[in-house]
Design goal:
heterodimer; A: four-stranded antiparallel sheet; about 0% helix; B: mainly beta; seven-stranded mixed sheet; four-stranded antiparallel sheet; 11 strands
């Protein structure tokens, strides 16, 4: 079974609107962490946000928030007030307690002016 | 600029050869991670070092090895190279000390390896 599933290969959003990028995960480890990364067309990788499995509140970092639903094993990224610079590939990842990382296949987000 | 440096930026070599990729973490970061991004395999975690010690191992081939030196820079050695090893290799660093930002990773610009 896939450890991380991102079901949206491509997404479009109007500038200034909010968008949700889906991510589901599979683990039996009670202690894990969930990450989101952004990769613009220039190729660099940018860490966006982290959520620990024991964190009580959803993580937020500026316009990014992680909608963590533990029972459903989902960790969706919400980007509010989209900007043209948000156009990029977005990767969801999970780290289990043994520090092994697993990545999803990514979602390509295009922000339309 | 993340503060993480990787050299070289590009590397072109032939099958069967050996190469070394170098990473210097941000000042003060103790952890170094190596990742491979290829069209075939997507993003894969290879290995993590913390303060000179191997902390976690991912999908790293036996032909690949890494180490972290006392000054905390790290090298990834790839040997007996195959066409399928062509990829973008990222290094990332993090503080890795208990605190609110200990999971934040900073990525280098990557080394693009082409095996001909």
């Amino acid at each position: 079974a896939q450890k991380i599933t991102q079901t949206q290969p491509g997404m479009f959003v109007q500038e200034k609107e909010a968008v949700t990028l889906d991510c589901t995960y599979d683990t039996s480890d009670p202690s894990y962490g969930l990450f989101w990364y952004k990769q613009p067309s220039s190729g660099e990788m940018i860490f966006l946000i982290y959520q620990g499995s024991y964190d009580q509140q959803n993580a937020t970092e500026g316009r990014y928030s992680l909608n963590f639903q533990k029972a459903r094993k989902s960790a969706n990224l919400v980007i509010s007030a989209s900007q043209l610079g948000d156009s990029a590939m977005y990767f969801c990842a999970m780290r289990e307690s043994g520090n092994q990382f697993y990545f999803g296949t990514g979602t390509s987000l295009t922000v339309i002016p | 600029d993340s503060g993480v440096t990787q050299t070289p930026k590009h590397l072109i070599t032939a099958t069967g050869q050996r190469v070394t990729l170098r990473c210097s973490p941000r000042s003060g970061d103790l952890s170094v991670y190596w990742y491979q991004q290829s069209l075939d395999q997507g993003l894969q975690f290879l290995i993590q070092y913390y303060n000179g010690e191997e902390r976690a191992k991912g999908n790293i081939l036996e032909r690949f090895s890494a180490q972290q030196f006392p000054d905390l820079h790290s090298e990834l050695n790839l040997s007996s190279l195959e066409l399928g090893d062509s990829a973008l290799y990222f290094c990332a660093s993090s503080v890795s000390q208990r605190g609110p930002r200990d999971n934040e990773q900073f990525f280098g610009p990557g080394t693009r390896l082409t095996v001909l």
